[in-house]
Specification:
The structure holds two protein chains of two kinds. Chain A is an alpha+beta fold. Chain A has helices at residues 27-34, 90-98, 107-120, 126-132, 143-155, and strands at residues 6-12, 15-21, 53-56, 59-62, 75-77. Chain A is globular and about 45 Å long. Chain B has two domains: 1-44 and 60-174, Uridine Diphospho-n-acetylenolpyruvylglucosamine Reductase, domain 3 (2-Layer Sandwich); 183-287, CO dehydrogenase flavoprotein, C-terminal domain (Enolase-like, domain 1, 2-Layer Sandwich). Chain B is globular and about 60 Å long. The chains are: A alpha+beta, B alpha+beta. The complex binds flavin-adenine dinucleotide and FE2/S2 (inorganic) cluster (FES) (2 copies).
């Protein structure tokens, strides 16, 4: 990254951080390049696929379309925050049990979006899961397994 | 993206002062979802962006006005519309349209002002708001003015906004609300992937009493270069019972009166046929809400 022209301060996965950014940098670039958190990835770069999903102040955003400058003073979470002290969240566990990925490129986005869905709607129907995750693309086409995993996680008591 | 200056005013007068009618390199930015795409594709390389996000506190609200209109703040996010109880009560057609507008992440960030000022003809909110007689409130250096959607969106990616004007809100009058007996529906027809831009959007609204339709609005999006009212179809629907014969005639009138455009989503002839059929479906969807 070039031409840093301001400093932003925010909370990243619970820890206060600051970063020198350029106003034209995306939050995805900062999370990956400055902080080495590579769970979120740029794939389409157009808001369509969800591989770059980040949570800003409790709401999902496409990191590829979100200016880093907008994150100043916010609370940012990435997929790396889901496992606590090495223990996977029940959603992550369910993804593994259901084989809800093949190459795994899309998985961080599906996990964060599914987590948001379950927080808003603890027992979603298949139609609701499909609609909520319609902005996430999986080139390996693991959609049926993802839906099964979300339903499995929904059926289990939240232990986190 | 090429570097630009990013300014973050906290009040409307400050924001207006940072814009300029003479400088095409200066733009307001709301959520940035549309601007980021254009900047990444290098079709736009602004020198200065004036972020309106600092105005979210004052211009982000959704409320009823004293005269019963529904006010949507220009900085309200599309997901705020989606989850608003007031919107669901007064203009449920907006709530329903949101579930198929883009995706959760874009709706979390995109704003009402951006959804109107961008003026991509494929967008969903403009035809829906036009069918609800919405008034767009605009602030500029010399004061405020109001435009209808028809007046605001003047062409393909073109609006009547000056470069130093800001959309501060949208009002849906009481007469277009659910409580006034107005039924409305919006159907969009995507011809390739479900998340693609539609080939057609049809928004309808009308009053319905004694099993009779009156004061109908029909607005076509996506198939045209800007949201377009179909007045001949409206006239046929009004004072009808919305029966199959009327719907067919209104569909034919619509097909004849609207200027359809060819693009990647379909040819003009194809879109014309889609519109002919979908008008009746939209009216029936609206009637199902009664
Ligand atoms: C992946 C994806 C899918 C999408 N799918 C759909 C869809 O299905 N249906 C649909 O309708 N749309 C869709 N969109 C478009 C989306 O609705 C727009 O990008 C969004 O509404 C723009 O709002 P914004 O606040 O992000 O605007 P910005 O990107 O900030 O701005 C867009 C334009 O409006 C101007 N502007 C912004 N706010 C104001 C204001 N208050 N006053 C004056 N000018 C202003 C800016 O200068 C710019 O010219 C999609 C977008 C993406 C990225
Ligand atoms: S990379 Fe951001 S949505 Fe695809
Ligand atoms: S698992 Fe490969 S893209 Fe989804």
């Amino acid at each position: 990254m070039t031409v840093a022209n301001r400093t932003i301060a925010f909370t990243l996965n619970g820890a206060p951080v600051s970063a020198a950014i350029g106003t034209h940098h995306t939050l995805l670039e900062v999370v990956r390049d400055t902080f080495g958190l590579n769970g979120a990835r740029e794939s389409c770069g157009q808001g369509l696929c969800g591989c770059c999903t980040l949570i800003v102040n409790g709401q999902s955003v496409s990191g590829c379309l979100y200016l880093a400058a907008f994150a100043d003073g916010t609370d940012v979470r990435t997929v790396e925050s889901m496992a606590v002290e090495g223990k996977l969240s029940s959603l992550q566990q369910a993804f593994i049990e259901c084989g809800a990925f093949q190459c795994g490129f899309c998985t961080s986005g599906f996990l964060l979006m599914s987590e948001q869905l379950l927080a808003q709607n603890p027992n979603p129907s298949e139609a609701e899961i499909r609609n909520y995750l319609s902005g996430n693309l999986c080139r390996c086409a693991t959609y049926p397994e993802v839906i099964r995993a979300v339903r499995l996680a929904a059926s289990r008591p939240q232990e986190r | 993206m090429t570097p630009f200056e990013l300014l973050e005013p906290q009040t409307l007068p400050e924001a207006l002062a940072l814009l300029s009618d003479d400088d095409a390199g200066i733009r307001p930015i709301g959520g940035g979802t549309a601007l980021m795409l254009m900047m990444k594709a290098a079709v736009l390389a602004p020198t200065r962006l004036v972020s309106l996000r600092g105005l979210q506190g004052t211009l982000g609200s959704i409320a009823m006005t004293a005269d019963g209109a529904l006010h949507l703040g220009g900085l309200a996010s599309l997901s705020a519309l989606e989850h608003s109880a007031l919107v669901a009560q007064h203009a449920p057609v907006i709530t329903r349209a949101m579930t198929h507008l883009s995706n959760v992440r874009v709706r979390n960030v995109a704003t009402v002002g951006g959804a109107l000022a961008h003026a991509d003809p494929h967008m969903d909110l403009p035809p829906v708001l036009a069918a609800l007689d919405a008034r767009v409130q605009i602030a500029g250096p010399l004061g405020t003015r109001e435009l209808t959607i028809d007046e605001l969106i003047s062409g393909y990616y073109e609006t009547a906004l000056k470069r130093n004007e800001i959309i501060t809100g949208v009002q849906i009058p009481a007469s277009a609300g659910r409580a006034a007996g107005r039924c409305a529906a919006y159907l969009k027809c995507t011809t390739r992937a479900a998340d693609d831009w539609p080939a057609l959007g049809v928004a309808v609204s009308f009053l319905y009493s004694n099993r009779t339709i009156s004061d109908a609005r029909v607005v076509i999006g996506a198939a045209t270069d800007r949201p377009t009212r179909a007045r001949a179809a409206e006239a046929l629907l009004s004072q009808s019972m919305g029966d199959a014969t009327t719907l067919q005639k209104a569909g034919d009138a619509l097909a004849a009166e609207v200027q359809f455009t060819t693009d990647a989503q379909g040819s003009a002839a194809y879109k014309r046929q889609l519109a002919r059929v979908h008008l009746g479906r939209a009216v029936n969807a609206a009637l199902a809400q009664t």
